[in-house]
Design goal:
By secondary structure, the chain is of the alpha/beta class. It has one domain: 3-Layer(aba) Sandwich (Rossmann fold). The protein is 44% helix and 16% strand. It is built from 11 helices and 8 strands. Helix 3 crosses helix 8 and helix 4 packs across helix 8.
Amino acid sequence: MISYKHVVVDGNRIFYREAGPRTAPAILLLHGFPTSSHMFRNLIPALADRYHVVAPDLPGFGFSDAPDHKQFRYTFEDLTKAIDTFTQSIGLEHFAIYVFDYGAPVGFRLALAHPERITAIISQNGNAYVEGLSQGWNPIQKYWKEPTPENRAALRDFLKPEATKWQYIHGVQDESQVAPESYELDSALLARPGNDEIQLDLFLDYASNVALYPKFQEYFRTKQPSLLAVWGKNDPFFLPPGAEAFKRDNPDAEVHFYDTGHFALETHHQEIASAIRDFLSRTVASNAAAA
């Protein structure tokens, strides 16, 4: 059974989904843009018999509070601080992280701050290498270099319902496998008053994540965390070379590709869940024994 809860972090409600025994090894699922913990609706029950699974909505996303961008600083540093406090508030001490899209820089920043708390990393199209960035990032990179009102306004097309649907179906072999409520829910939440400015602020601050890529890579290289990459190979934003690059810094990293797009869980949640269960059964158990 999945429980739907919230906890107050620094005055803002963080919504989260939780399932599985609280005494079991924990997995923290971190979503990306423009979605929420809803993207894990099929993965959670596939893992919860063996793991304590927790999936929060980032501030500004899903059913978490979305304070005005003039009241809350929408940067990845501040999103990470909120999730760090969230994990402590609900008593998560040690956990694996499943990181996707925006969830990757949040999860990797958590790992930099608290490497002793991270038991394993599962990256599903969660990038940490320049070679993983596609040309789809060009308009956003232009905004990083020239943060003008004109370049900000040009990114509003990314917030339109048709753009959100395209992110879900691009690269998918059978569009009928993608549940329409996934992109329709995302679009409805993006359309909330003021949410456009939140997302545009985060587009601008994503440059800070790319600047941290060398530190993320140093972490992989020096700490050698158990790492599994499960990648939709037809992702228009994060390319397969970004998944392969994990092995450069962490030779024991395991990399699996699936013939699907950015939101790989929409079409391949069973295969990904199986890969995660196999990976964690070997790595988390051995890490616990070593500790």
